[in-house]
């Protein structure tokens, strides 16, 4: 059994036979009849999976104590702008998976709106609208590469541009920091902007080519990365939150298609349709050295009438 | 899918089809080749079960954030003698399950040694040996019921008594407190004692009839109990740790067979062969009002040559 599990297969049923077959159901049945249905559903599944996990790997008592201590260490490390539990969830792919569960939408004939990916903690509700063709670069870093970013926001059913949609974007500077965490180098709202599409659904503006950065490695989440033999880097990315009253919103991150960390993103948030192709340009009128086009596909709200966006996440700063 | 899960069945495969079928394996495959085999085994199983759990209940983002905050609250509540993470594990049956995984031993023809159950945080390595027939009651509470406790420690194969085995016992006083947490009422080593069996494997001594008590309900673990509609009581119990150099040790808790909390123990640590029948007696020479017999079955070490007991748990006070 132990050797089976080592090579990645599981054999919970075989292992379970050595143990009391009624124990897990006993714990589940301790819930009172008045337990709320959703609480019962979540706790039933959680208890089953935690018990199956323990039996499958035949967890030792020392390992279990280590796990308890680790969970305590995560909570003890908590402070404003530092959420190690959140980061561990990201490292294990949980935030990205929960995002998919809540936003995955495949239409009947295989059409799909632009993929969603995690919001992250740096979205701001105060980002200003800017004119089409404006620049979000208020403070140009020495190593910054000015980029002309443009595209069309389209209806996934008709393929037509959506006028009046909002393309809200934010990105870190070349030092890996967002404006609010870098007051020495960046003025408020640097590298943030909201753009409203024109009558054809088009938008265009200037930003920086994004650059990769490492997540904070001073806490217990870094121990998990080390155990797994993983690096702490996120691929370079530009965040976007695209909205329109008649369409299901799309929150995602866009990555240069040649970024070295796409396949090994620390927070497992890369998807195939979120890649950008930065092309060198010369003699661009506003001095851009790169050009990138990205089109967004939005689904009408009829497909998910109760859809909402979890913007309150933005108040849970974690990195 | 959601309604299936509500009534206790699971349908992870059906739910999974809506989502990227490769994502979980992607996260697992982020582990580097040099990851230690046991780390790989544990994390592979943990990632699979956590992902299946999220998909099965279609966890919402708000619920996920609530979970992250709850884990943080557990760690933030940590202090000496207060381990809320440990207690949550107990409420979910995890400590008891891990104990079973590490100690379950069923011999070929159905014979079984006495069941193991969780050690708890109150065992002491300094408990003194006492004479057979002595009393562990150094401080008799007003509502205490003196009990004559006796039995035989037997070889599970031969049924014969094991001479020189050690029956180490400890119990709370009638106020629900152990000696070290109750210096006003109890002298050191009150209600603790080690007894060495005679040439026939017999032991006998005086103790109190144990009484039920509630676990601490001032922290986040009590929120979980409340959500599940569960009470905070442990059934009354006497702890025992039985050892002999040639036998696999047995650590367990013994419960009055008529205790009202047997079926709903907060920490899920009751087993059918750990029940005590307290019988009233009159004119007992040392004033006992109750008599209880309990025999222990031990398996020779040949069945598990590498068995050890996790006494270091005793340093992880949690209640």
From TrEMBL, chains A, B:
Keywords for the protein's UniProt record, in alphabetical order: Dioxygenase, Iron, Metal-binding, Oxidoreductase
GO biological process terms held by the UniProt record: catechol-containing compound metabolic process
Keyword Metal-binding tagged: yes
Cofactor section: Fe(3+)
Top-level taxon of origin: Eukaryota
GO terms assigned for molecular function: catechol 1,2-dioxygenase activity; ferric iron binding
Pfam family, one: Dioxygenase_N
Domain Intradiol ring-cleavage dioxygenases: 120-299
The Catechol dioxygenase N-terminal domain, residue ranges: 37-104
Oxidoreductase in keyword set: yes
InterPro entries named in the record: Catechol_dOase_N, Intradiol_dOase_C, Intradiol_dOase_core, Intradiol_RC_Dioxygenase
Family label: Belongs to the intradiol ring-cleavage dioxygenase family.
Protein name: Catechol 1,2-dioxygenase
